[in-house]
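Hi W., the zinc ion complex you wanted:
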Amino acid sequence: MSMTLSDLRVVTPDEVHDGWLTIEDGRITHIGRGTGPRNGNGHSLGGRVIVPGFVDIHTHGGAGGSYPDGDPESAAAVAAFHLGHGSTTSIASLVTASPEALTRAASALADLCEQGVIAGIHFEGPYIAKSRCGAHDPAKLREPDRAEFRALLKAGRGHVRMLTIAPELPDALDVIRDAAAEGVIAAIGHCDAGYEQTIAGIDAGATVATHLYNAMPQLGHRAPGPIAALLEDERITVELINDGVHVHPAMLRLAAHQAGPGRTALITDAMGAAGMGDGRYRLGPMTVDVTDGVARLAGGDPGGGSIAGSTLTMDVAFRRTVREMGASLVDAALMASLTPARVLGLDHRVGSISVGKDADLVVLGDDLQVDGVMKRGTWITQPS
Ligand SMILES: [Zn+2]
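Structure:
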């Protein structure tokens, strides 16, 4: 089955050009210049912008559902919600919980990985710093444990893709080395590490910074801390939450300028309230109140008031990156798609509009709102 999409503004990793695409068996088979053929089983998109499907490597929930619940129905609803907002590839992020709860959730999510609904599992915690635990249950934090980590990987049946860990904790470097040896991305975050401790974590094999700036010591001119180490090291890709709440736009620009779009990945860190109204929600074992779209731990819990994930979706993050950060469409697409795809080792299949890759596409209207989403050549939302 062949399909032609014509009259597009195609955003490739190098440029934006007028063009058209041919899609066959779920893949992009041709990229042309000009408006393209208008006959046959084509679809003219009236000069709208088309970008690669977004790749979100850090998300907990949405549409009232939550990955940490380990409930397949709820998890499928989360993935479908974010897919509607252009995330054609999503990683399911768990939060700190008991070994039993993590094992149960990982094995339920592994089923969804095998069905192609999500692209992997991310353990955010439990080996993170008490002083920087944010919305994680401090009672459930523990020291890095190689045997437990091995058991968690087993529960995930080869689908665990990422572990967020504080490198300064005892045995953390061993667990980072184990992760790297197993092909699991070690991500530094929720940590109280200094500059040198962070470099030790990177030397042990860490390659990602979990939501840079948030839940880690601040950048100081005499105490550069983890932020400087993570930004300047070419081995690290930094995650950024661009929701207008977590990080000031100037600091987003600073990070993206230093790391460049090739080492900067936009994430949502979304929780269940994304796509829903204000109100009370759960994030793993914690209670979260959402007011004006901002999620914070409920007052009664320890650490009450901490920001607890976001209500962001990748389309909004993309739009803000162009509008508020001033990035070009090409750079925003790198940060929303190709760079995170490369982090996951999936860039041979997804992450850019390139011949041979999956036809995972997002059609954007005038103000960059989502008009259509395609996954592997099938419209999830067909543009009008
Ligand atoms: Zn998170």
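The radius of gyration is 20 Å.

W.
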